[in-house]
Structures are given as C-alpha cells and as structure tokens.
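For practice. Supply one:
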Amino acid sequence: MRFAHKVDSNQAEIIDALEQCGAIVFNASRFGDQFPDLIVGYRGQILLMECKADGNDLSEGQEVFHARWKSRGLPVFTVRSPEDALRKIGVGK
C-alpha cells in the first residue's frame, strides 16, 4: 500500500525562488518513499533536493538514499529555505 508523501511547508517558496533565478525544477515529491522532493537543473548541473522545514529531519530511508547517492559522487542536498536552495546551486552567499 502506498501512502501520500508529506510536503514540507517551505517547498513552494523554495521552488519559486529556484525558478525565479532561472533553474528548471521538477517536483518529484509525489514519488514518495525515499526519493528527494525536487530535481533541479541549473547551468549544466542536475541536483536532487529534499525540502525540510526547520525542526524536521530526514527519515531513516531518506538518510540511506542520500548516503548511497553521495557515495557515488552525485549531488543530493537537504534544503531548509529558499536562500539555502539558491546557495546549493551557486547563487547568493
């Protein structure tokens, strides 16, 4: 049985900020399970981002996904604000 994926309250504003700076964003949160919320394309790079509101942590399954992805040198990030997401793609300080 598949359950609906919980969407953190900051996800819409993170998507908006990324798109306003020219990134292409695919909202993958409906995939559920351990897959990150966003697939982001920007200036020749593709990154995966997990949106988390302050106080929310990665689930155990998400931690495993992140560790496996990173062990192969692939970018996957946990972001907590629009500014955090922009920094991950190299925009802002």
User: Anything to note?
Assistant: The chain has a mean pLDDT of 90. The CA atoms of residues 77 and 90 lie 13 Å apart. The chain has one domain: 11-88. The chain is about 30% helix and 20% strand.
